[in-house]
Amino acid sequence: MPAIVTERLRLVPITLETIEGVLRHDRVAAETALEDILRVCGSQHAGRAQFPPAWPNDELVSIGFPYSLDAIRAQPHIRLWGDSLVLPREGPAVVLGSVVFKGLPPDGIAEVGYAVVEDSRSQGYATEATRACVAWALAQPGITAVQATTFPWHHASLAVIRKCGMVQVGT
Predict the structure, then answer these.
(1) 104: how many CB neighbours lie within 10 A of its CB?
(2) ∠105-79-9 over CA atoms, to 5°?
């Protein structure tokens, strides 16, 4: 996935090196890999790339990356398909969140998930980032639809889904 720039955000691909650092709880490795991604993408951020102190936590990682590290290493082009870290377009290179797909779908129906760090919520970042990634996914060969799954009580997540043009098909 290429870097995507929106009005307020820069979405950069999650690489194998980044996810290895995250899954090993090696912040230095993850942030070094993020620096490499930003350099390749030509991003000009102020300061060193950083993940927020408490993010991503184990629960978020298990939801976003339900595969073993060996499975990701064996097929990164499938397992990390379309996955992005969300950073501000301007200012410090601090990760605000992520948008991930559950791998390259064999049936053409991609499933998207998204998360934003707590102190950056309620600012429209999840909607802006997810909308851009959904548009990217739908432009890929063989992708016919994008779906998202959330809980009926998760009103913020439901709002993101609606604002991205998705409609509820189940309960």
Answers:
(1) 18
(2) 90
Tens digit of each residue's pLDDT (9 = 90 or more) over 32-87: 999 999 988 887 776 788 998 877 778 777 777 777 889 899 999 999 999 999 99
Instruction: Give the helix ranges, DSSP H, for the chain.
Output: 16-23, 27-40, 58-64, 69-74, 76-79, 125-138, 155-163
How far apart, in whole angstroms, are the C-alpha atoms of residue 154 and residue 67? 25
pTM: 0.91
- End-to-end, the C-alpha distance of the chain in Å comes to 32
Task: Using alpha carbons, select from 2, 34, 7 the residue that is nearest to residue 89.
Answer: 7
Q: What share of the chain is helix, strand, coil (3-state, %, to 5)?
A: 40, 20, 40
Q: What is the pLDDT of residues 123-134, one digit of tens each?
A: 999 999 999 999
